[in-house]
Amino acid sequence: MDIASKDPALGTKPKAQELSRWKRIRKDYDLYLMLVPGLLFLAIFKYTPMYGLVIAFQDFTIFKGIQDSPWVGLKHFNRLINNDQFFDVLTNTVLISVYKLVFLFPAPIVIALLLNELTKMFFKRVVQSVVYLPHFISWVIVSGLFINMLSVNGGIVNTIITKLGGSPIPFFLDPGIFRSLLVVTEGWKEVGWGTIVYLAAISSIDPQLYEAARMDGANRFRQILHVTLPGMASTIVLMLILRLGHMLEAGTEQVLVMYNPVVYNVADVIGTYVYRVGLGASDYSFSTAVGLFESVVAFLLIVTGNALCKKYLGRSIW
Amino acid sequence: MAQMNAAAPRRKGKTGGIRTSFGDKLFTTANYLFFCLLGAATLFPFLNIIAKSLSSEGAVVSGMVTVYPIDFQLGTYKLVLGNTQFLNSFKITAFITVLGTLLSLLFTVLSAYPLSKPNLAFRKPLLLVFIFTMLFNGGLIPTYLLMQKIGMVNTVWSLFVPGLIAVFNMLVVKNFFEGIPESLEESAKLDGASNVRILFSIILPLSMPVLATIGLFYAVTLWNSYFNAMAYITDPALKPLQLYLKELIDSTSDVMKMAGEVDINRDLNSTPEAVQAASIITATLPILFVYPFLQKYFVKGVLVGSVKG
């Protein structure tokens, strides 16, 4: 992550340089030409949809377009607030996010600490290669793998349950289990990959600190507690703040491939709801209002997080 | 490791400088055991599905297959590789992955290089124009309406053009460029080389590690993406691999059968599970194939990208 704000050349700009700004642009015109494709891309595919958000305040129909659709003020937001379904969706989103935060945020930290204690380099490298791998597998395939293993027709897990005398469990159809399934599959896919940042933080800890701790008679557990953990503390806080910014995503792409009508009421998150109501039922204005709600909250979370980061850690995400 | 081995015998006696206590030994053993189990748990789903793809349908449905094939056969792979819809989807995904990755790298590098120049006039506002798109977005519906308006719905372009520049990747590349010593460019500048020339003949050859990493990230994202296809593609001839697989998995799984999503008729000739397994494996092979070669790069690349701040 970069720190644009710490750029010395920007902070203390001498006046002479300020005056020659246009001259510099003319001299380095090719640098600006290079920026054209990127800026055009952003203008079309990122900023135009932001303008399109105005349809949340209209009764938009595709025939009339944004220009001619009637303005209706906050009608769709009122609908949203008074909508029980939206309330369920919001609850699901926050619950799923919180479950994932509680169970999956600490896991990579613990695993990184334990990986760091492995002294056989070959073994360590093999373990790392293996645990990073699922990160590169698509959600479609991950859901395929788990549907396959948990199937009631010949899935290995239900075969074992049956052999032990239990009755088969339709994991993907049980509203009481589905959220746990979301947490477990995300854990399988991403926890290993999550260790990479913490391992990097650990590798930048001064080895002399360990020597000093050992001289003082610290065993390995004490070394972890008093040297390694404090050394990675700022990375942990940074990652936590980054995560909080994504609270309302709750793994939309994951839910969209894994869920089904039977578990909609416990699994529908904002992203999947927008998809179903918007593209499925063509209720454009209402689902745009839902999407705008998500975007605004996400924006506030990220900006607040970054401000906290700057204040307490002295480093910022952008 | 060599050091450890040399030192180990001397430490055995209780008189050595630092003793390995019983607790330490227990911890070490438990730790190695833990990672063996974690590795096994990570690999098990893969091994299970590979075994299923190589087993007879009867063995698969009866649930006998664990991590080795039962009634070994290769027929399902022949079926998968002979399936025109699968091959067509495979080709589309390969096309968008190759073209999309190359164009993404080009667009990303072209944006990152000027922004890596500390003296660029209006650098900060320009950077903000990029970063703001990471913080706020128009969301699904306005984006869909735009795609419809510019005629990209149901075209192969809709699968990679909306994601051409990932701003996060651009920032990683920019950080890397900033770490390259200025002096390398200065002599070329004195010889009258243009900025474009400097970028392509001096900077880029030095940037291979970061380009490989970012390229891998773009390629994996494109290979794995299904959301754009779900939103923008209805034409079966344009379905990329992941969407094809999603529909295949839905048609086979008891999830959709029991949820009433698949009607009885389709249910009767639903895809055999071994074929589904073989399709999943075949679609994953390209990633499994490039993964070992690029691993050393992405570890470095992530370090450049995430801990520099």
Automatic annotation (TrEMBL), chain A:
Principal subcellular localisation of the protein: membrane
Entries under PROSITE patterns matching the protein: ABC_TM1 (PS50928)
Keywords noted in UniProt: Membrane, Transmembrane, Transmembrane helix, Transport
CDD domains noted in UniProt: TM_PBP2 (cd06261)
PANTHER family: POLYGALACTURONAN_RHAMNOGALACTURONAN TRANSPORT SYSTEM PERMEASE PROTEIN YTEP, PROTEIN LPLB
The protein's name: ABC transporter permease subunit
GO cellular component: plasma membrane
Subcellular location: Cell membrane; Membrane
Gene Ontology BP terms: transmembrane transport
All residue ranges annotated as the ABC transmembrane type-1 domain in the record: 90-305
Cell inner membrane as UniProt keyword: no
Gene source species: Paenibacillus aurantius
InterPro entries according to UniProt: MetI-like, MetI-like_sf
Membrane topology label: Multi-pass membrane protein
Origin superkingdom: Bacteria
Entry's family note: Belongs to the binding-protein-dependent transport system permease family.
TM annotation in the entry: 29-47, 94-115, 136-161, 224-244, 256-275, 287-309
TrEMBL record, chain B:
Keywords: Cell membrane, Membrane, Transmembrane, Transmembrane helix, Transport
Sequence ranges assigned to domain ABC transmembrane type-1 in this UniProt record: 90-293
Topology with respect to the bilayer: Multi-pass membrane protein
Membrane-spanning ranges: 32-51, 92-113, 125-145, 157-177, 198-220, 274-294
CDD domains in UniProt: TM_PBP2
SUPFAM superfamilies for this protein: MetI-like
Gene3D superfamilies according to UniProt: MetI-like
Family assignment from sequence similarity: Belongs to the binding-protein-dependent transport system permease family.
Name of the featured protein: Carbohydrate ABC transporter permease
Protein's organism: Paenibacillus aurantius
